[in-house]
Write a structure and sequence with these properties.
The protein is of the alpha+beta class. It has helices at about 5, 20-30, 50-70, 75-85, and strands at about 35-40, 45-50. The chain has a two-stranded antiparallel sheet. A hairpin with a 5-residue loop joins strand 1 and strand 2. Helix 2 (about 20-30) packs across helix 3 and helix 3 (about 50-70) packs antiparallel against helix 4. The longest helix is centred in the C-terminal third of the chain and has 19 residues, at about 50-70. The protein is globular, with a radius of gyration of 17 Å. The termini are far apart.
């Protein structure tokens, strides 16, 4: 029977909550991973950051800035967000 320990990663790449999303995206690209465990300064598990969340959050920030500039235009920021971010964020 195949066990979890037979396929798990032992050397984890982790970040802290205070790290930037840019650092997270760069780390994921460099390490070719899609998820990063987020650990507290004491080493406790805080959460898991997925690649879609890291990418969508940056796009959502750009779109919110763009929507402030486009306040009088016909385009809807929600449409732009769906178009730029294929994942459900």
């Amino acid at each position: 029977m195949l066990l979890v320990r037979d396929v798990m990663t032992e050397k984890l790449i982790t970040l802290r909550p205070s790290d930037s999303l840019k650092t997270a995206r760069e780390t994921m690209l460099k390490a070719r991973i899609r998820h990063l465990p987020i650990l507290s300064p004491h080493g406790g598990f805080v959460g898991l950051l997925s690649q879609p969340n890291a990418i969508c959050s940056r796009r959502q920030y750009r779109i919110s800035r763009m929507s402030r500039r486009m306040s009088g235009m016909r385009s809807k920021p929600e449409y732009l967000y769906r178009k730029l971010c294929p994942w459900t964020c």
